[in-house]
Amino acid sequence: MGAFRPIAVFLMAISFSAFGAEVEGFRVWTDPEKTRAVLDLDDTSEYKLFTLEKPHRVVVDLKGATLSTQLDFIAEHAGMISNVRHGQPDEGTLRVVMDLQSQVDIKSFLIEPTGQYGHRLVIDMYDAGQRPAKAPARSVKTLAADNRDVVIAIDAGHGGEDPGAIGKGRTQEKDVVLQIARRLKTALDAQPGMRGVLVRDGDYYIPHRERYEKARRERADLFVSIHADAFHNRSVRGSSVFVLSQRGASSEFARLVAQSENSSDLVGGVSLNDKDDLLASVLLDLSQSATIQASDKVAASILDSIGQAHKVHKPHIGRANFMVLKSPDVPSVLVETAFISNPTEETRLTQREFQTNMADSIVRGVRNYFYASPPPGTWIAANRDGGRHIVSRGETLGAIASQYSVPLSSLRAANNLSGDMITVGKELVIPAG
Q1: Where does the LysM domain lie (predicted)?
Q2: Is residue 294 located within the same domain as residue 200?
Q3: Are residues 237 and 351 in the same domain?
């Protein structure tokens, strides 16, 4: 391989094994913002990464490394990579070259072993000059457009190289939660004054922090992360709804679930070493207290709605340190739709009827919350007359009237009620206050 003048050089010194690392695997994934290449290693290795042009390519030199696998990739996932090859520019160095379709900006990092994955060298490639912009501030001016939709960011957990939990029947969490997320968007878009935005709409991984940053860029009013739970006891079943805990998980079960979800960020390639700093900065933001309060209320509404149609694991909101819930200014909830580790629920997770019913249950909870507390400037806020409320378990007509600040007599009259008896699931018309 001839010598080339490097356009940019990145050098990262890592603890170097005297015996050298062995490259055991090569994977490529593409999402709307970048192409990610992953080299699976059996040990740490010192490496040098740089780009060349004419033609454009990314070059990785691994000191003391050997190759024990084919550098194959799936074309539909290759993104801007057109070909991959390897060579030995000097004794003791393995060179991997990725031919590109255009000039790129690159970012790389090594990841320590976690879960089923060993050491990995991750290389992210962005179209030159197209690195994601920082989320804009949520100013009053940008949020106060008249009659705007309430925006719900829908996050299908895991994706790409991170399959999430895997059921006994080999169902992968990343697949079923994406299907539920898509059905949730369809159901939300059918609601007057509401619009769903998918954080991911394909089989690719997005680090946790980037997920809620996308919600902020979309100026979302709510962030809903969709997951499928797993537990070592396969008889455990039911749905759960979580919000961020300021003091850590409220129970051992919540702690285990949080650890499982957060570990996927290591799989995806983002270190969680700074999570305490992030949480501290979030807590310093004065808006966070209001965000947490709103998260609690919408989570309770969603859990109650799910409980009307499905078994819930526990009748109260869970609290845990999910990284994906740490947005400073977007109320955020995480829904564990069912236990993929339970064979019966694993089957249900793959069924269209269950997916649709789960999506509809979440929508009912979201709708009830926003009709009770519509953000200023939204269509819902401007159209409270004619709003709707789905009766949840334990609610009374008097409490609903108080929630919407309307006279009890007006609520009775709007719904042709002679008394205060109401049934779970009944849709009430909410008159003007």
Answers
A1: 387-430
A2: yes
A3: yes
- 135 located within any domain: no
> Which amino acid does the sequence have at 257?
V
pLDDT (0 to 100) of residue 293: 85
Q: Which helix (H) or strand (E) holds 268?
A: helix 252-268
213 and 121 share a domain?
A: no
Claim to verify: residue 181 and residue 316 sit in the same structural domain: yes
- Output 317 or 75, whichever has higher pLDDT: 317
| Residue 1 forms part of a structural domain | no
pLDDT at 318: 92
Give yes or no for residue 280 having a pLDDT over 70: no
Strand partners, 8: 51
CA distance 210 to 216: 10
Q: Of 233, 228, 232, 257, give the one whose Cα is nearest residue 243.
A: 257
What number is the average pLDDT over the span 75-79? 83
pLDDT of 247 reads 64
Tokens of 292: 């947490």
Number of domains forming the structure of the chain: 3
Distance CA 409, CA 418 (A): 10
> What value does the mean pLDDT of the chain take?
81
| pTM for this model (two decimals) | 0.69
Q: What is the CATH number of the domain that holds 153?
A: 3.40.630.40
Residue with tokens 């793959």: 350
**Would 167 be classed as within a structural domain?**
yes
Residue 357, in any domain of the structure: yes
CA distances from 430 to 221, 325, 385, 420 (A): 22, 32, 6, 15
Q: What is the pLDDT of residues 319-329, one digit of tens each?
A: 888 888 877 77
The DSSP output letter for 87 is: E
Helix (H, G, I), strand (E, B) or coil at 124: strand
Q: Which range among 46-60, 197-211, 286-300, 328-342 shows the weakest confidence by mean pLDDT?
A: 286-300
Q: Are 16 and 185 in contact (CB under 8 A)?
A: no
Domain residues for the domain of 309 are 141-372
The rounded distance, in Å, linking the Cα atoms of 272 and 278 is 10
Q: Do 122 and 145 reside in the same domain of the chain?
A: no
Asked whether residue 228 falls in the same domain as residue 327, the answer is: yes
Q: Give CA torsion, residues 99, 102, 107, 112, to 10 deg.
A: -30
